[in-house]
Amino acid sequence: MVFKADIIAEANDVIYLEGIYVAPEYRGKGIGSACLAEVSRRLLGRASHICLLSNQEFKHAHRSFEKAGLRNTGSCTTLFL
Question: pTM for this structure?
Answer without folding.
Answer: 0.86
